[in-house]
Amino acid sequence: MIDFIPLEHFAEIYFNVLLIFTLLCLFHSAVVPIHSKKNLSFINFSGYFLFFSIVLYLGLRPISGKYFGDTRTYATYFEYYANGGAIVSLKDVFFHVYMKFCSAFMNVHIFFTLCDFLYIFPLYKISKTLFKEYWFYALFMFIISFSFYTYGTNGIRNGLATSFFLWGICYHKNKIFMGLFFLLSASFHKTMYLPIIAYIITHFYNDPKRFLQGWLMCIPLSLALSSVWISLFSSLGFADDRLSSYLSGEAAEGTFSSTGFRWDFLFHSSFAVVAGWYFIYKKQFVDKLYFQLFNTYLLCNGFWILVIKANFSNRFAYLSWFMMGLIIIYPFLKQRFFQNQHLIIAKVMLIYFMFTYLMFYIY
């Protein structure tokens, strides 16, 4: 366990180290071409160093509910199972089975380290699968995303579920394997039915223009009829009663620091929307999988916009935000658009991370 770092500085150190690393990437990209052997060696070493360092840093964190939210709750469950307790929840039962299995032969700190490995490995896997030797840039975009730290230390089950979904996307040409990972994802957290259904829809209709128009329409619809959408989706119960309670529940720990129509987070959501629009319509980028991922993002984010005033709408925001870094970086790593593309990639990473960095200090 990492007990030599004061808890109140744990996250601050993490984000400032990432800031230094982001600036290092910026300086490096200004002098080294993206295809050079020197750069490939640098990003390979950097990628694996970050991968294992973050797994250990987040996984070996102290047990604290004050600083790491649900970590304390999961630790309590784990100790209960380690002492021979029976499965206590039939909802998202696979996670509890996984926790009870692990409690038989490892301590709680190894368990959390394994959780963070399983959280980050699929991000590495999809980056490596889609972008080959340039996988570092995609993985880094995942790591510097606004919600990455939170779902590696607090909403662990949700973080694992979204990562398993991305692992499934690695097998988009093998529907059986993809379906198994989607099932695993939903077994860990039922809210994953939303991105799973959205992705399935894109197999039947995959026109970004219509999905983009729908996303834009969600903004005035939410402003005018937010209570109607919250009541409607709450009554439908979408997959299970937890989703309904997220919509209708009272404000509590784990929600955004303020409620109402969150223009700041809508601005954050627009990063991926603007990136997708720019590459598809301004740069004429054509890629079926990218269209599917972009449209899945638009569907999930549009749903969140409709219920943005709900107290637990952060739970729905993450169902699109976990894909944001991938949506932004994907075209950069598939096709050359700019003469100084390596430097532009680094600038995009810096701008993207600055939102995360500033939000840490603001909120």
UniProtKB/TrEMBL annotation:
The keyword Signal does not apply. The chain crosses the membrane at residues 13-34, 41-60, 98-122, 134-156, 176-202, 214-239, 265-281, 293-310, 316-333, 345-362. Keywords: Membrane, Transmembrane, Transmembrane helix. This is EpsG family protein.
